[in-house]
Amino acid sequence: MEVDTKTYALHELRTEPQPLRAELYNVGNFEPIPVAKANFTAAVKSNDLSGACICGMIKVFLITNGVPICMSLSDKGCIAALDMYNGRAFVSGKTADLSGFGVKRGKWTKTEIKTSAGKLQLLVDNHIEYETSMPLVTMKVLGLAFEFYGGGAVKSIQLNSGNQVVFKGGLKQ
Fold first, then answer.
1. Contact between 151 and 158 (Cβ < 8 Å)
2. 53 falls within a domain
3. CB 71 within 8 A of CB 122
4. What is the pLDDT of residues 112-135, one digit of tens each?
5. Which of these, 101, 99, 83, lies nearest to 91 by C-alpha position?
């Protein structure tokens, strides 16, 4: 799935002075699964890297019946503007080290949200960049979402409950 500046231009939408935000959702296409058994992967990239879109901000969400789990990515020079949700609370890049979520603009980046042994892990290109304990309340994953500030693309989406594939999709390779 992809949204780019050509799509915006076709609909006479401007990406200046503020970047447009394209949102892609998948809710209701799979049975809800426990967050404690969720393992999620997707490859994402920014494809509008000029003007107000220079940071190439991307957000990847697991939508839950509680606080969402959200990983934010941007150009390495923009990491102070990052924030995320860890299933329990909001985490700001102004007060937490989110430098591992700085990525190369315009390049495919593998994102993963894994749960194991009571821990929630957020991975970027196979490296654990954030780890915390699981939320205290039992939650379920209800859907997936992607936000691209400017334009972007997503492919190789897969959500597992333990070893069972629950959802698979994205751009054709």
1. no
2. yes
3. yes
4. 999 988 899 999 999 999 999 988
5. 83
Q: What is the pLDDT of residue 1?
A: 55
Predicted confidence (pLDDT) at residue 169 exceeds the cutoff of 90: no
CATH of the domain at 156: 2.60.120.560
Round to whole Å and give the CA distance between 44 and 110: 7
Q: Answer whether 63's CB lies under 8 Å from 77's CB.
A: no
pLDDT in tens, 51-69: 555 677 899 999 999 999 9
Q: 90 by DSSP, 3-state: which?
A: strand
Question: Which of left, alpha, beta for 106 (phi over 0: left; psi -120 to 50: alpha)?
Answer: left
Let me know if residue 172 belongs to a domain.
no
Could you read off the pLDDT of 82-95 as tens digits, one per residue? 999 999 899 998 88
Cα gap 96→98, rounded to integer Å: 6
Q: Which domain holds residue 37?
A: 2-160
Is beta strand 69-75 parallel, antiparallel or unpaired with respect to 152-161?
Answer: unpaired
Domain count, the chain: 1
